[in-house]
Amino acid sequence: AVGMSVSIGTGLGLISGYFGGLVDEGIMRGVDIMLCFPSFFLILSVIAFLEPSLTNIMIVIGLTSWMGVARLVRAETLSLRQRDFVSAARLSGCSTCRILLRHILPNTLAPVLISATLGVAGAILVESGLSFLGLGVQPPTASWGNMLMEGKTVLEDAPWLSFYPGVAILVTVLGYNLLGESLRDLLDPRLKK
Predict the structure, then answer these.
(1) What is the dihedral of CA 115, 28, 100, 116, to 10 degrees?
(2) For 12-42, how does the pLDDT look when each residue is reduced to its tens digit (9 = 90+)?
(3) CA separation for the pair 110, 25 (Å, rounded)
(4) Following CA atoms 16, 17, 20, 24 in sequence, which dihedral angle do they give, to the nearest 10 degrees?
(5) For 75-97, what is each residue's pLDDT tens digit?
(6) Is the dihedral of CA 47, 53, 147, 180 positive or negative?
(7) How far apart (Å, rounded) are the C-alpha atoms in residues 155 and 159?
C-alpha cells in the first residue's frame, strides 16, 4: 500500500514540478480534489463496494494516500530544477527522462523515504480501524483490528483480549513514527550542525 502511494506520488510530483505550467496546474488541482475527501471515508465507501480482503484494502489505501507524497516531491523538484547541475545536464543534451531519473529523483528520495516510513504507521491505523469495523481483513486472517473487535464482546471478563492488540498497535505505530523522525534528523542536511 505504501509502495503504491509512494510510486504514484513520486511520479506525479516529479512531472508536476519539472514541467510546471498547465501540467502542474492540472496535477495539483487533481491533488486538491482528492484532498477534499476525507481519506478514511473514501476508503470506507470503496470497500463497501468491493469484497473486503487484504489485497483490496492495500490497493485502496495505496490509491487514496499518494497526495502528500506528490506535493512533497513537487516542492523538492521545483527547487531542484533551478539548480546548476540540472542546467548543466540540460545543456549537455540529457533527455528529460534522464534528468528526472538520474539528477532530480535521487535528491528527492530523503523526504520520500521519511514520508513512506510515516505512511506505514498511517496504513496500519487505517487497516486496524477498517478491520475493527468489520470492513477490513476478514477472519480467519489475523488482524489487530479483528482482535480488538472480538475482544470487545468479552471486555469485562477478559480485558487482555483487547489490551494486547491495542498495545501492539500503539507500539508499532509509535515505532514507525519514531523511525520516521530519526530518519528526518539523519537525512535532512538543514538539521545537521
Answers:
(1) 10
(2) 999 999 998 899 999 999 999 888 888 777 7
(3) 25
(4) 30
(5) 999 988 888 988 898 889 989 89
(6) negative
(7) 5
